[in-house]
TrEMBL record:
It comes from Acrocephalus arundinaceus. GO terms for molecular function: integrin binding. GO terms for cellular component: external side of plasma membrane; integrin complex. The lineage of its organism: Eukaryota, Metazoa, Chordata, Craniata, Vertebrata. PANTHER family: INTEGRIN ALPHA, INTEGRIN ALPHA-10. This is ITA10 protein. Residues 131-150 are annotated as: Disordered. It comes from the Eukaryota. One of its GO terms (biological process) is integrin-mediated signaling pathway. The gene is Itga10_0.
Amino acid sequence: PPQVSFTLELEFSCSILLDRAEVTLQATSDSTEAIPQDNVVKLSVPIRYEPNLFLSSNTNLHRYEVHPLGTFIHGSGPEFTTTVKVQNLGCYPIQNVTLHMALPALGHHQATILSVTHVLAENATCVLQPPDEGTQVVPAPPEDLQHMDR
């Protein structure tokens, strides 16, 4: 039997959110058919909307001091603030968004290079967790910058 393939491209309105798209296809012919009932098919497919998330971050400290090995000054360094923003640029609501951030906290010989003092959250729930017992924490290796011109 002859076959026909085609693609349907549907556009959806931001003001009306649908759970399903229902399409009825009907083939007609000038010929006489023995079983005309099989010329109609009704399709119903679930609709999933693609999110349009934008992730941005900025910090108030753009300069970091690097000390030679063995000359670390014990005590806290300068405090800085990092802001992470998640925006929904699409017109469809987004649910159950989870953002995981891994902060570099250990340096050479397990030296602490970062400690979080406080977390402020707007329109979100933030949980500060140490690494799980089974998680391997890989300290950042010391950088050899002697071969660099600048």
